[in-house]
Amino acid sequence: RGVADGELDIVQDEASPVDPKAAYSKSKYEAEQILRELADDDFCPVILRKGTIYGFSPRMRYDLVVNTFVKDALSKGVLRLHFGGEMWRPLVDIRDAARAYIACLQAEESLVRGEIFNISQGNYRISELALRVRKALSSLGISVEIRPDYGYRGVRSYRVSARKIEHTLGFKPLVSVEESACDMVRKIEAYGYSDFDNPRYYNIRWMKVLEESLEITKLSDSVFEAPKAAVSMEGEV
Q1: CATH number of the domain within which 46 lies
Q2: Fewer Cβ in 10 A, N or C end of the chain?
Q3: 133 exposed, middle or buried (CB, 10 Å; 0-12, 13-18, 19+)?
Q4: How much is the pTM?
Q5: From CA 68, how far away is CA 144, in angstroms rounded?
Q6: Domain range holding 192?
């Protein structure tokens, strides 16, 4: 939903109408429908709709908003806020997301079979996230400047309620944005994840690299060898 859609700026729950636009979100929604139709005594599907993930991981992600702020703070010392950071986002730390999966796996099947649960630590404006990240990093001696940018970027804005899983399973996320931001800084420095331009850390860029590698292997059977046609041409010279 766009930032300017005032009449749609409400907190959405699991029963709210869904109108996915992108191919990715459409495929997710269609998969939900199919899985729920298959639910029976022998099959217990559970749908988790997670907010934007933040936090450290072995295959680090720098294309998610909190992680991007941490990366920009370390590499540039500046956090840029598109549309002034007025957009809303539901967020959850990766460790809490994992805990949510465990909670559903351990729950009584009658409580979760065919159910949809939103997973979110809270809803935040992007501008508030920037302030929280800046404050957290200042405790580590890292200075950060915030620069609002009100140019239009076709931004999305939405909020969700995660009360259902709390009421049903007693599950509640524990890791705050500030705690996660500091944890990321320590681990990025400890494990050497500061090659911020590496495409491995950005899903779309990484998929493009994999697609290019696939095209190479079609010609040479290996991403480490020149295409057979090129080898043949070299032999003719």
Answers
A1: 3.40.50.720
A2: C
A3: buried
A4: 0.85
A5: 13
A6: 6-201
